[in-house]
TrEMBL record:
Belongs to the methyltransferase superfamily. UbiG/COQ3 family. O-methyltransferase that catalyzes the 2 O-methylation steps in the ubiquinone biosynthetic pathway. This is Ubiquinone biosynthesis O-methyltransferase. Its EC number is 2.1.1.222, 2.1.1.64. Keywords: Methyltransferase, S-adenosyl-L-methionine, Transferase, Ubiquinone biosynthesis. Pathway: Cofactor biosynthesis; ubiquinone biosynthesis. NCBIfam families: UbiG. One of its GO terms (molecular function) is polyprenyldihydroxybenzoate methyltransferase activity. Gene3D superfamilies: Vaccinia Virus protein VP39 (3.40.50.150). It comes from Pelistega ratti.
Length: 232
């Protein structure tokens, strides 16, 4: 059985054509991408040029292309075929080469153990039935001493108010029904799953949104959105 929620796949497939529209439902991903990229570079501590990177749950390729622009050899995997079609078309248009494949993280890990310097899994864990299985696959895919990066949403009433009620219903930053509170993951839970898989904490950072300035920024407040850096 694949670790996939078909309703989640269908939800993102329905709006796949909008992946590269910076004013669409994917605007938040475009807005936070420079922050994610800079944070990854800082955690790695050296240029990404020449490194092998896997982006799990790559969607339309927003992060994957930005990593490839840094000179990395990038593979992006996802189970939403429509999103991958958009990603491949955009790659052809931009001239930024990324190898996109429709395959689960678990199956890909069986085929490519310890082949990547960096594995990223951003804004995905809250959309799968078994996040621990994805984390285990990340550990299997990354080389010894390699980096694995996660980002997801904390599970508390503040996160429910901001990530669901405010973001989906008031500010309408993302489509209604994008997130489900019961699927959110506390940092302590994510760190525990990572340790159990053999990944060890390097850094924990919060991702906040300023509604008046309409900008995202990194902080030490992990009460809603947060990013986790680990090493094997």
């Amino acid at each position: 059985m694949q670790n996939v929620n078909q309703a989640e796949i269908d939800k993102f497939s329905a709006i796949a054509s909008k992946w590269w529209d910076p004013e669409s439902e994917f605007k938040p991903l475009h807005d936070i991408n420079p922050l994610r990229l800079q944070w990854i570079e800082e955690q790695v501590g050296k240029p990404l040029q020449g490194l092998r990177i896997l982006d799990i749950g790559c969607g339309g390729g927003i992060l994957a292309e930005s990593l490839a622009k840094k000179g990395a050899t990038v593979t992006g995997i996802d189970l939403a075929q429509q999103s991958l079609t958009v990603a491949r078309l955009h790659s052809l248009e931009s001239g930024v080469k990324v190898d996109y494949q429709c395959i689960s993280a678990e199956d890909f890990a069986e085929q490519h153990p310890e082949q990547f310097d960096i594995v990223t899994c951003m804004e995905m864990l809250e959309h799968v039935p078994n996040p621990a299985s994805i984390i285990q696959a990340c550990q299997k895919l990354v080389k010894p001493n390699g980096h694995v990066f996660f980002s997801t949403i904390n599970r508390n009433r503040k996160a429910q108010a901001l990530a669901i009620i405010a973001a989906e219903y008031i500010l309408k930053m993302v489509p209604k029904g994008t997130h489900h509170y019961e699927s959110f993951i506390k940092p302590s839970e994510l760190m525990r799953m990572a340790r159990h898989a053999g990944l060890y904490l390097q850094s924990l950072k919060g991702l906040e949104y300023h509604p008046l300035r309409q900008v995202f920024f990194l902080s030490d407040d992990t009460s809603v959105n947060y990013l986790l850096s680990t090493r094997k």
